[in-house]
Design brief:
The chain is mostly beta strands. The protein is built from 3 helices and 14 strands. It has a 10-stranded antiparallel β-sheet with strand order 3-4-5-6-9-10-11-12-13-14. Strands 1-2 form a two-stranded antiparallel ribbon. A two-stranded antiparallel ribbon has the order 7-8. A hairpin with a 2-residue loop joins strand 5 and strand 6. The longest helix is centred in the middle third of the chain and has 7 residues. The C terminus is likely disordered.
């Protein structure tokens, strides 16, 4: 009051007959305590002719903001087998699948974005409501999604509008929008080693790397900047394959030292595709190495082919 004392009958917030407006703690409404779990298991064994190793792991890491997380399932196996005294073969393979819930505008390149929950929670004044409430002060819910309804301060979600970051509420975007990355990664190597005479080894190997990444993004049609457009959906896919041949490697073992005797040649074939825009590339690279550059200089040959087409445009979500 005018006497410098607080009115004991005063309450925080007010109602306009349709909605009740009261300040919210944006930091409390934005952050959460995420749970991280990791499990690993492995088995190994062998005998005088064979040895093997197999492992698997699972990682689940919830983010500190809603709708952010990372999951990874991976496995690895290796095997070596002495077929004959002069022949050994083996393989080493690994596969992993990753799933990332990575909301937009949450990195260091978007520190001033209206979609950055960290920035808004730290910068917004503690006088603005985070949620839409009914006239009695109860937070309103979207029953179809099972989420609260958030106040965008744009005069549309409620009759209230704010000067700071109008039309923005990152927490609503985190719950109603979805940005998901799916990644498959495979690495494999197969080799054969021949020892025709003691101290002389001839090896050849083939390696393969395959990576496939998909992006799925849905911007909801109910609230926020894309509501007037009926929402938006975006998809992209990037795939890359690398195949490496080591055709020949001859080494001699003398007094415990490994010395290249002649040369080795490796050929790498790489292909990749992207559909935003759709782009295909195929590259062959061959290198030959000698004992020294004076005997057989290192040479590299590279051929690249590019193909591009226009992808279908992103479409709206009804």
């Amino acid at each position: 009051g005018r006497d410098g004392k607080l009115n004991p009958n005063a309450t925080l917030g007010y109602s306009n007959g349709t909605n009740y407006f009261t300040p919210d703690d944006w930091a409390e409404g934005s952050y959460r305590n995420g749970l991280r779990q990791e499990y690993n298991v492995s088995v190994s064994g062998g005998n005088d002719k064979m040895n093997f190793f197999v492992s698997g792991s699972y990682l689940s890491d919830e983010g500190i903001i809603q709708n952010s997380s990372y999951e990874r399932l991976s496995t690895r196996g290796s095997l070596e087998y002495q077929v004959h005294k002069w022949l050994k073969v083996g393989t080493n393979m690994a596969y992993s699948f990753g799933k990332s819930q990575y909301p937009d505008d949450m990195d260091e390149n978007s520190t001033n974005s209206s979609g950055n929950a960290f920035y808004i929670a730290n910068a917004i004044a503690p006088i603005y409501p985070l949620y839409v409430r009914d006239a009695s002060g109860n937070i309103m819910w979207n029953e179809a999604y099972g989420n609260p309804i958030y106040d965008y301060g744009d005069g549309k979600s409620t009759a209230f509008s704010r000067q700071f970051m109008s039309q923005a509420n990152p927490m609503s975007q985190l719950l109603y929008d979805k940005t998901e990355y799916l990644t498959d990664l495979f690495n494999g190597k197969w080799f054969a080693e021949i020892t025709p005479v003691e101290g002389l080894k001839i090896t050849g190997s083939v390696g393969l790397t395959v990576q496939n990444q998909r992006l799925h993004q849905v911007l909801n049609p109910l609230y926020g900047q894309f509501a007037d457009l009926g929402g938006k959906q975006f998809r992209s896919q990037t795939a890359q394959k690398v195949l490496i041949f080591k055709l020949l490697q001859i080494i001699i073992v003398l007094s415990g030292n490994i010395i290249p005797l002649i040369f080795f040649s490796d050929t790498k074939a790489m292909s990749g595709t992207m559909n935003t825009p759709r782009h295909s590339e195929l590259t062959f690279t061959t290198r030959c190495h000698g004992l020294s550059t004076t005997l057989l200089p290192t040479t590299t040959a590279k051929v690249t082919a590019n193909i591009s087409t226009t992808p279908p445009e992103a479409f709206s979500v009804a």
